[in-house]
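User: I'm writing a short report section on ligand binding and want a predicted complex to refer to. Could you take this sequence and magnesium ion and write out the structure as tokens? A short remark afterwards would be nice.
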Amino acid sequence: MIDLESERRIKTKMAEEVVSRNFIEQEIDKDLTEGKYDTVVTRFPPEPNGYLHIGHAKSILLNSGIAKKYNGKFNMRFDDTNPTKEKDEFVEAIKRDVAWLGADWEDRLFFASNYFDKMYEAALKLIRDGKAYVCDLNAEQIREYRGTLTEPGKESPYRNRSVEENLDLFERMKNGEFPDGSKVLRAKIDMASPNINMRDPILYRIAHLTHQNTGDKWCIYPMYDFAHPLEDAFEGITHSLCTLEFEDHRPLYNWVVENVGFAHPPRQIEFAKLYLTNVVTGKRYIKKLVEEGIVDGWDDPRLVSVAALRRRGYTPESIRKFVELGGISKANSSTDLAMLEYCIRDDLKTKVPRMMAVLDPIKLVIDNYPEDMTEEFEAVNNPENEELGTRTITFSRELYIERDDFMEEPPKKYFRLFPGNEVRLMQAYFVKCVSYEKDENGNVTVVHCTYDPASRGGNSPDGRKVKGTIHWVDARTAQKVECRLYNSLIDEEKGVYNEDGTMNINPDSLEIKENCYVEPALMEAKAYESFQFVRNGFFTADCNLSKPGQPVFGRVVSLKSSFKLPKQNG
Ligand code: ATP
Ligand code: MG
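Assistant: Sure. The structure tokens for the complex follow:
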């Protein structure tokens, strides 16, 4: 379990989050005070080329959270300017994930591709103002002319084309007169700029591609650095929050919105991406795992895509708490997955019933218990939450217990069942081990006990103490189910990535236990419904694998953690 000191620091930190403001909010406060803006409009701008992951969740909660805090607006915008990789399947999945996380875009759903006409107009304006030109250099030449970090670039021989010629050529680019890659439209900024992004960046390229929204209307497509600031400006975004790798692009962002001439241009502010140690977070890499069949889809519970976390049994509340705990920062760092696990444990602890399930069963026979008798016990569903009520569990002569709750020859400090030892069967009776049976391979098959009828309810009849309490299910009523345990997808000794772009995969990340026994009430579990299986962890009925009346349970997280909140966060 998490230690008390960490728990205290987490609580203090959460309380501070409420009153203190992160650096983005401080900037917004300043802008509002100075009258730069009189409202706050943010957006989440995913490219529909994959599913969202935990890093995107941070961006979603940050952007929608800020809009809410300032009584502003939050736009959901698909940045669908790149027709090759984008798919409608991803649009639907992303909408579902954003809504599930609780970010409400109301009626503010936008597609960048709907702005293609306006973007084209913006490009024409730049050409007319002498600030953009059509360039015939090929990709390789453009790269050569660009210079390096230490050397300035060279001007393109096409840089001084007349406005009329540029207008004519750009129109013909649009009309499909030129093949892909033969011409581009470039901004005319400064080939000697110390910032390479400012050395006449490409604004438009020719690509004869069918777009999922605009079909074959366009064969020229705007580049990200031109399209993104325009999208923000068209929508009246005030604060365009993006990740640190765009810091060097900010001068270009500003150049675009200033030179296209917006009265109230948006302001870009960068923050650090969320990374998880030894976890695959990049969209590109998750995609690779899916395409190579290493996982069974974008929502494989071993991934940290939002769909996978939902399937695994994470709640929006737990993800929000995780993002809040991590805070917003200007410096890249990597967070421990244990913190995410802490958040879901903490969320489910009081929300879900605690039931008994035996994952690796062996039989326990109570020799002195009448053969035809069945008893019922009233079990409290969650001692920390009375509202969850009670349920009835049955008890009879034959039970299942966990294989590792019995040992023939126990080591020191083993307090569970071994010959001669007495333990408590949770909620039921004290039992004492009298003998056991083995098969021809030496595996224990049956443990024999006697019970003390006076210990009914698991209470000591005469003040004598037992050190171990174990869980069980009644063999007469228990039902067989499949449970799945998940381990890290990554071989943590080696780290996630190799230099050649491959990943170090742990071959044992999925453990399937087909012969688990659970209380019969669990057979009614619905997809996404979660439970605590006492001593074994939190489990959720898998939404893809469960059938009505026959659930498959996947472990969300075990009950124990070695997680300690790092000092500097507290
Ligand atoms: P990836 O880096 O996983 O390939 P991406 O940046 O290509 O993701 P987009 O669809 O372009 O994916 O991202 C949408 C928004 O989410 C962007 O504003 C981006 O900055 C933000 N975002 C992406 N990854 C993270 C992350 N790890 N942490 C915080 N925000 C992120
Ligand atoms: Mg991107």
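A remark for your report: Residues 4-19 form the longest helix (16 residues). Residues 47 surround magnesium ion (ligand 2) (CB under 6 Å).
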